[in-house]
């Protein structure tokens, strides 16, 4: 089996329940599609107001997410599913983003039903495709809190996403369901249901108090002998040769005249400030703790691995050099997109201070001599 650090592959023995109910729906207005501009980036108002997700939803971010997916595909040698599952019937993907992983899994497993969750909404909001260019959004009765895409629908397509901004509706197959879901609310799928649950890069959307319940919900929803695979990036910048050091400090002024000592390395400053900003409601240290949390939840055969993801092409190993080269543009973009709102809103950084820090961090991230990487 192959896993990835803070990305884990796990087997479990979930218990069985035969209860399954179905949600009624009522048509939803445009609130989940409403966006606002913050320092020239477009954000989904619903996601930000609910303190769920703080990254933009514009075309630049969609491009970055697709680039990131390509990089992860290189890291995992094109493998979508890590454990060997002889009969794959039902798969749940938590945090599908552009839908690329979900689409590929559905395409390669035409006899498998798939349900995919996006960590955004406060309710289950099915988004039903009548045609690739026609979108209707519905809100189920919150008192029911059950899943669309289950029961008697068979292998018909149901695309559901609170944020349709990143998903291309043309990427659809008959056995693909895209379900709108807030991963901070209980996963009310029936027990003993899924063969595989995939959770990838959701730490920026899971509230700090939710992780225990999130993993417990996964355990309950898996069939006996089912698997869960998790992939998370620890945005704590490191260097392979120790050049990103915290031994020297410089001062960066935030919130007016309130000066704070920060590492001289701009990448280390970025990491420390990301930690400080996201700790307001998330747990940015979660990627380092998933293995222990999974074992405590009751998962067995936990395979936990850390993979250094180069920020640019610096490795002597050709495969890692290719990964770093491909990842350079993703890193350049994420240093801004993941932190513009948290830094300005939670830390009170001016836009000038932000651009200066990001420019310096980008210069370090693209410097092969520093051998920078993020732990995966």
UniProtKB/TrEMBL annotation:
Signal sequence residues:
none
Task: Give the source's domain of life in one word.
Answer: Eukaryota
GO MF terms here are: methyltransferase activity
Q: InterPro entries this protein is in?
A: SAM-dependent_MTases_sf
Q: Where are the transmembrane segments?
A: none
Enumerate the Pfam families for this protein: Methyltransf_23
Region Disordered: start-end pairs: 145-164
The text of the family note is: Belongs to the methyltransferase superfamily. LaeA methyltransferase family.
Question: This protein is called what?
Answer: Uu.00g018970.m01.CDS01
Q: Which organism is it from?
A: Anthostomella pinea
